[in-house]
Structures are given as C-alpha cells and as structure tokens.
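Need a sequence for this fold. Nothing fancy.
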C-alpha cells in the first residue's frame, strides 16, 4: 500500500513517484488517501509521463497529468472524440461503445477511447493531434458602442487632517465626515475588509486617498491619481472573454480570450451540469477552475497595463443560465430537468471575494438578469449591445452555439427562444470535426472536382472546424453532390467506408497516421441537418408567433465566435438562415461581451439590462405547437 498525497493538476511536482488520488473530480486541495497500486503512463508525442492509480481511466489519468484530451461528452463514452492509440502495455478489454464508435481498422491498430480504457500496467500512449484540446480561436471583440461612462462606483479623492491627541475621531468617521466626501456622496456603510485596511492605508498614504463608493458603501481604497478599474466577463460554455476597463474613461485597457477550463470535464454543458449535480466537491471544482482562469487573466492584464488588481472596484459577469449557476454554485438539478427552472433570474450583486476573485477587497460582481430556461444574461447583454430593444424595425439577433439563442425584436417587442442546435458546429459528432484551433480547415470551396481550403494558422490540415463544416455542406449541396434530402450522390471523391458514404476533402498520408483522410460523411450530414433544422425552426417559430414572414426582417445580426467566422452565404445556401439579400446580415462579434462592458461602465445601461430581462417574452421551443411541423421541413437543405 502506498501512502498517496493528492496535489492539484499542473502543480510543479515530480510525476515519477507514487502519489495521490482521493477523487479524480475534485483534485484542487491537497488531500491524503491510500491506494493499492499505481501505473506509470507516458503520453506521446507530448512527452508527459507520470503515475496514476490503476483503477482510473486513461482520460482521468490524462487530466491528472495535465494532458488536455478532447472529451465533449465529459467521459461518458458517447462522443467518440477522446481517441488515443495504445503503443505498449496492457489495458482493459474493448467496450461496446468503442466497437460502435471506432472502425475495425482503427481498433486493429490499437486505437481506443481514453474514457473507456483502464491501464492494467505501465503503458505508452499516443495522443493524435485531433484528440488534443489545443487552444481554440476565441472571439472577444465586438462592435464597440460608445456610451457616456457613469459607473456604479463613484471615486472621491480625499485629503484628511491627521488624527492628533486633540482630534480623536476614528478613521472611518474621519473619512465619512470629510468635506471632500460629503460634497460628492453619502457614505452609509463600510465593507468589513475596507475597515480592516483603512487605518494602515491612511497612514501609509499620508492621509491622502481615494474612496470608491458604491450605493453608499466604501468598496475600495485607491491611491490618489489612479482611475478606478472595472472587470467585465463573458463566461461562455467553451470560451471566456475578460476585459479590463477604465471606469472613468470607459476605455478597454486590456482583454483576454481564454478557453473555459471546465472543457476537460465535458464540452457539453449537460455533462458539466451532471458532474456538478453529483456533489458539492465536484461543483466546487468546476467553479474554482473558472475563477482561477479569470484570476490569471486579471494578473496578466494588470501586468500588461501596469495596473493593480486591487484598483478593480467593480465587475460584471454575463453567462448563459447554466454557466451562471455553475459559477455561483447555485443548485443545478432543477435547471437540468424539464421545466428547467432557474434558482434566480433577476440581476444580483455578490461580493467578488466570496466567489474567489482577487480584485479590490470590497468590490462587488454584478450578474445581469437571466430570462428563462437556458436563455441567460449573455443573451440580455447581446440585446443590450446590439440596441435592438429600442429600434423601430424588425431585427433578429442570433448567437449560434451548442444552444442557439435567438431574439426577434419586432418594433420593440422582444421575443426570445433557444434551440438545441447541438455541438456539430463545434466539430463534435462530425467524423473529421474539430474545434477552431491551429490546423483546422476554416473555409472550403469546390472548384470543379478540386477542393480548395484554408486552415487556421496556415498549417497542414488536421480536421474541419464549424465554419468549414458549414461551407462543405453548402458546397456539396450547390454542386449537386448532396441532394435536398441530404443524401450523398455518386462522385469521383465519394466512397463507401464501413457501410457509410463519405466525400473525401483531403487525402491524408498513408505513411503518417497523424495525417488521416479528412472526410465528410453521410452521418455528418444528418447531424448537421438536425442542427440547422433546429436553428431554422427557432427562426420560423419566432416569426409565426409575431405573425411575420421572413421577408419582413430588416436585418439579422449574427453574434458569437462561430457566427463571426461563418460564411453567411453558406448558411443561407443550406437553408439554416432565411434567403434574404446578404446585405441584411451583419456579423457583430462578441455582442454579449460588449453588453457586459456597457453594464460595467454605465449604471444607466445596467438598468436597461434589468428592464430587458423583464421585457423579453420567452418561448419554450420544445413545447411550441408548431415545432414538429416546421422542424420536419427545416431539416431539408436549401
Ligand atoms: S467518448 Fe470519451 S470523452 Fe466522449
């Protein structure tokens, strides 16, 4: 029996000795545990090696050793993306899931699903490039909207008379009663952390200081001549956009786009909700992963701009309802099941330190309101930043993702819904699909029988990301290689593989297993038909509920990372978007992030967001009476 100490992943430790493991889902705190046996695993070509308990799956071992393997389903064995090759050593027998998801040729070469495979001794594993979760292209920028900065925090510079034996007033009262303060704001409360700081700070700063006051409460003490800073966060299921703002000028000082680290516990939000629902330790792990990533971004942005995190006196976060609940560690069980009830939908303010954020000690984080179901504050933020809530026109805003949120603004009447478009546009459930990282083909064009393509990073192609998946389907449909029902027709590039037809986009290198053929299969097309059918159904249900036809739409705004890179003409060609003149479409980038920034720098915009939350009429698409009728038509192409 080994005595095992459990360290968090990525800690600077020597992985070569037996150690740790209390639980594979809660490895953030050092804990002690005992375990019978460990196995030594080496991951190639990354060269990461270490010891893991013998009863853990390869995916769990990879997570522990800091090897990011794609696991869209969170390790339940149904996405087929965690493919690895066993080069040496014994592992558990093949499972039914693997027989279904891997073809015979792959199985013969030792390919396995990491989440279904348990090492039975020391092993050598190869992780193909497609299975490595490389940093994804993120979209943090959007259309900047200029508003007059007037944040929720008022900063008052004060110059106090030092305390003397003849003037025994306490420090907090001295600050509150100072004419510099009284002429500007009324202080009614001091945060306890500020009370702990105030006496040494006043003396250190020679009684010259700035008090940051929010709704009568002192939330930060800043040195003179330093503008208060703000933090805006758009917390997405796959990506996080973080902005460091100057609250006085309203300017963005720095920004970061990062991958949501929860991805290694499932790209699918449902998998993460299921994990969080298993217990407080798991929910805590998921929350702490995101908080750590945001804290790291804060430090990087502050170093870059030579600012201090303690000057961040206010923060705003937007997210979909599920991410919002995971971030706040709110109960998630009732949100995961019909009728999908949120714990809270109105805007809330929480002390940032209670979440674990390292900014000014008394600062709050403001959470914009959620609407209903999974339509959350990020949708409110997108409505806010695009301004569709106040326009006298018929405008639609779509944020396309695993869940696609759509709002129809019909002359200020707002109706929203979300449709389960699935992860196909993230490259999941698509044979050669991958996320938008280096090596992903991002655009495809068919010229005669030749396939022209462009990859992210200009490197050799590894797979297809969402925009290329959309292009491929549109190009094959326009060329008549795929008919309106989605069936692949005979063509020199079309072949049968394991009983399925597939179109070969790129012929790989037979000598190099890391360069397999990149193909587009009949099953991929069916998957995309479901995704595009869901989105088009959402659009049509919104139009019907407002007694409108698609030709009545003045403009369609496409928001979000995926929407920023798609070729709108391809989306129109397959019928995912209505057949309107292309000039009626506009790709607006990260509209949710822009909304978070607006709500941060302007309390007026924050109030509008609150009002939008109550104004939006929500439609539950799955129970809409016209759903089946429209969906059955909408899955056809063109
Ligand atoms: S099949 Fe292994 S993570 Fe999905």
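Here you go.
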């Amino acid at each position: 029996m080994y005595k095992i100490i459990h360290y968090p992943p990525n800690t600077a430790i020597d992985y070569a000795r037996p150690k740790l493991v209390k639980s594979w889902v809660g490895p953030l705190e050092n804990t002690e545990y005992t375990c019978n046996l460990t196995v030594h695993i080496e991951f190639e070509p990354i060269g990461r090696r270490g010891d893991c308990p013998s009863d853990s799956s390869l995916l769990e071992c990879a997570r522990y050793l800091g090897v990011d393997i794609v696991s869209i389903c969170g390790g339940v064995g149904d996405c087929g993306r965690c493919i690895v090759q066993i080069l040496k050593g014994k592992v558990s027998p093949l499972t039914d899931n693997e027989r279904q998801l891997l073809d015979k040729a792959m199985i013969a070469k030792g390919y396995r699903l990491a989440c279904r495979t348990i090492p039975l001794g020391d092993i050598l594993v190869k992780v193909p490039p497609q299975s490595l979760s490389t940093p994804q292209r993120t979209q943090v920028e959007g259309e900047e909207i200029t508003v007059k900065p007037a944040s929720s925090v008022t900063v008052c510079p004060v110059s106090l008379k030092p305390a003397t034996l003849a003037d025994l007033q306490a420090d907090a009262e001295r600050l509150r009663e100072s004419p510099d303060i009284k002429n500007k704001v009324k202080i009614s409360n001091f945060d306890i952390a500020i009370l702990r700081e105030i006496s040494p700070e006043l003396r250190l700063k020679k009684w010259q200081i700035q008090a940051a006051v929010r709704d009568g409460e002192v939330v930060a003490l800043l040195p003179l001549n330093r503008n208060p800073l703000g933090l805006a966060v758009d917390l997405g299921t796959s990506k996080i956009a973080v902005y460091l703002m100057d609250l006085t000028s309203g300017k963005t000082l720095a920004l970061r786009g990062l991958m949501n680290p929860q991805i290694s516990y499932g790209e699918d939000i449902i998998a993460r909700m299921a994990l969080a629902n298993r217990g407080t330790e798991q929910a805590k792990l998921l929350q702490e992963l995101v908080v750590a990533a945001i804290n790291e971004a804060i430090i990087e942005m502050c170093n870059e701009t030579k600012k201090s995190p303690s000057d961040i006196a206010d923060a705003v976060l937007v997210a979909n309802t599920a991410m919002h609940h995971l971030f706040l560690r709110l109960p998630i069980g009732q949100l995961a099941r019909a009728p999908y009830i949120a714990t809270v939908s109105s805007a809330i303010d929480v002390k940032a330190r209670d979440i674990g954020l390292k900014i000014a000690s008394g600062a709050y984080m403001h959470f914009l309101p959620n609407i209903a179901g999974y339509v959350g504050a990020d949708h409110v933020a997108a409505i806010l930043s695009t301004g569709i809530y106040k326009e006298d026109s018929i405008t639609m805003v779509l944020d396309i993702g695993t869940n696609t949120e759509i709002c129809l603004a019909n002359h200020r009447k707002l109706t929203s819904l979300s449709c389960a478009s699935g992860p196909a546009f993230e490259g999941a459930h698509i044979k050669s699909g991958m996320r938008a990282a280096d090596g992903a083909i991002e655009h495809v064009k068919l010229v005669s029988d030749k396939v022209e393509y462009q990859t992210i990073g200009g490197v050799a192609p590894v797979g297809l990301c969402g925009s290329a998946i959309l292009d491929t389907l549109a190009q094959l449909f326009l060329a008549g290689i795929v008919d309106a029902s989605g069936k692949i027709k005979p063509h020199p590039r079309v072949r049968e593989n394991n009983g399925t037809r597939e179109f070969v986009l790129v012929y790989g290198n037979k000598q190099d297993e890391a360069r397999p053929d990149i193909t587009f299969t009949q099953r991929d097309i069916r998957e995309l038909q479901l995704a595009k059918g869901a989105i088009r159904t959402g659009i049509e249900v919104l139009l019907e509920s407002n007694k409108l036809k698609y030709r009545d739409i003045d403009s369609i705004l496409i928001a979000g990372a995926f929407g920023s890179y798609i070729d709108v003409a391809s989306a129109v060609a397959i019928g995912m978007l209505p057949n309107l003149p292309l000039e009626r479409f506009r790709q607006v980038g990260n509209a949710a992030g822009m909304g978070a920034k607006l709500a941060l720098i302007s309390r007026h915009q924050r109030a509008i967001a609150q009002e939008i939350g109550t104004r939006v009429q929500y439609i539950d698409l799955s129970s809409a009476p016209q759903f089946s009728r429209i969906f059955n038509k909408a899955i056809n192409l063109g």
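For context: The first strand starts at residue 2 and ends at 6.
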